[in-house]
Amino acid sequence: MADRYLLESGAPDGYLLEDGTGVLLLDIPPPGPTIDATSTSGWDTNVSTNSVTWTHTCSGANRVLVVIAFATDNTQASVTASTCTYNGDSLSLETAAAFTFSAGASFGRTTIFTLVAPDTGSAFDITITFAGNCDRKKGIAISLNDASQGGVYETAVSETSDVNEFWPVGGRDVTLTIGKDGSLPISAMLNAGSLNELNAGSGQTRIHSSVTASSQWSAASYRSRSFAGSVDFQWSGIDDAGPYALIAFGVLALNVKPVVHMAPYVTGEMRQ
Fold first, then answer.
1. Are residues 15 and 66 in the same domain?
2. Is residue 182 domain-shared with residue 219, that is, in the same domain?
């Protein structure tokens, strides 16, 4: 005689669910979000402006747009990224990290925004507006496909330090706790100090790393599809004196969940 059953599949995060009638629903793990395109405004050092604007093109299915804002200034309130828009649509602020440097006389802040289902078909303007005129400001955009169209991210973390700390040999890192197989983690780093280069750790793809004349580095990075558990993002660098550098920094990480693809109904039976 055949019995109805609940079967765990061998694929990561895949499972079969009984719907109460003996019909089984197969949840196939998606390949996870993939990078559609990246872009950047570059550093804007016009001290008389409070915004940066550049163009970005989104394409593909199940889209999510992630925008990262960087700013430094001698006025603390000015570095707050107040709003971000793409083709006139407002993005949601997800997380931010702020720090001080130059003996407390200067301030830096990194902010991450997201937008579900951004418009396609053309290169549209992204505009980040800050609370006040900033000495230095920059934006990075990352558009993704096959990303969740509900809750975009599971967790977001940040770490900051003021200029009184020395950057250790191993650099600095943040750890994300991922609950959904197939998610794609993204990290952003802004620092002020004496680094000659800002390096992303093993397994990270660094994008749009750049420095101002005042040795303020900014960059983003991402990892490929990750399984549930802890994922580390590490940032490191050296200065002229060696691997130790007097650094202030703000580092962020955010995890973009995959879209769930549902397969057609299937049936199964267990032979006694």
1. no
2. yes
Q: Is 61 found in the same domain as 21?
A: no
Residues 17 and 117 in one domain: no
Q: 20 is in which domain, residue-wise?
A: 2-30+261-271
Residue in this structure with the two tokens 């830096």, named with its chain if needed: 108
Question: How far from the centroid of its chain's Cα atoms is residue 64's Cα?
Answer: 11
- Give residue-wise pLDDT tens across range 168-193: 555 677 788 877 777 888 988 888 77
More confident of the two residues 83 and 24: 83
DSSP 8-class letter at 78: G
Tally the domains of the chain: 2
**Paired strand residues for 159:** 251
Longest dimension (CA), the chain: 80
- In this structure, the strands spanning 166-167 and 15-18 are unpaired
Separate counts of helices (H) and strands (E) for the chain: 0, 23
What is the C-alpha to C-alpha distance for residues 1 and 83, in angstroms, rounded to an integer? 63
Which pTM value belongs to this model? 0.81
Residue matched to tokens 């669910």:
17
